Amino acid sequence: MSAVRSEEAGWGEVVRLPGADVPPLPVEAPLDPAVVGARLHEEVARRRLVLEDVDPGLGAVVDAVERLAEGGKRLRAGFVLLGAAGASGGVAVPGALGIATAVELFHLAALVHDDVMDHADERRGVPTVHRAFGSRSADHGAAVGVLAGDLLLTWADDVLARSTEGLPTAPAVRTVWAQMRDQVLAGQYLDLRLQADLGSGTEVDVADVVRMLQFKSAKYTVEHPLRLGGTLAGAGPDLLDGYAALGLAVGEAFQLRDDVLDVFGDPRATGKAEAGDLREGKRTLLVALALERGTAAQRAVLARRLGDPALDAAGIAEVRDVLVATGARARVEDRITALVDDARRALAALRLDPRTRAALDDLAEGAAWRSR
């Protein structure tokens, strides 16, 4: 089935994904999470049939994936759709919904694998995939988590290919997609290396931490989704460069807000275990700045508390006190504010239709200043 597009249809247009065997879904608005959520549900349901045909027990793996997919803000999907809309003058673009779905599947894969590496217990208010299968042994649960993440990665690739089949911009989209994948995996490695350095007492430069968070999270949260949508719609280099500047600023602010919420936020709102980064000994910017300016006593607290899987409420409070007293939290908040200002300037420089501009502004602001 080929993709169809009606210039008069606008946001209410029905887009049929190339090769899809599910009913078409209306692209009613670029930020409607139900639209991408429905596509995710259809894709996972299709894959369930294949897996359960091998063995009915594989349905439990799909169940765990579906529970994880139910949550989330569909932030990356929204930026894909807005990136396409910005390049098309606000007209729905064939393939955009499929790419948005592929990005969400890729994100789920990254979460599943990240949770395995971080030994995380909870994600989006439900047990992490590897914990759901850990009753036999921790190794068994971790192995299932790796396999589930691998499945999601292959599904994401399949959806991307099917959604862009026959479209003239498909090769360019694939190039951006490949760059996104490689950079996320490279950023994940940098995160693991920094964590190991902290455990060994090795000094780490703040610039190393910033580079890690840019490649592990910032770029693939906003910049790459915007560029994927824009590239699909045939955006020129000026718009794509503008997307990159906007996306990097918003994406970094998003990750820094995530780091702050991990330590100071309400786990009932975030859907993650309290202070998970502290228990894992993550070298976030908060930690790096505190180590940079902390006294010997304050650095000793961080050395003793970070990476302790049994960290209790008293230990969390002690670390929080250090992060505040050293000015680390204030400096991160100041950086978020500066990044949002950079993003506003980048957005103002983009030539966009009013509706897309307003939606992009709302999504960017929400990413940086969210409370969960």
From TrEMBL:
Main enzyme class: transferase
Keyword Transferase: yes
Keywords from the named record: Transferase
Enzyme Commission no: 2.5.1.1, 2.5.1.10, 2.5.1.29
Protein name: Geranylgeranyl diphosphate synthase type I
Organism: Nocardioides zeae
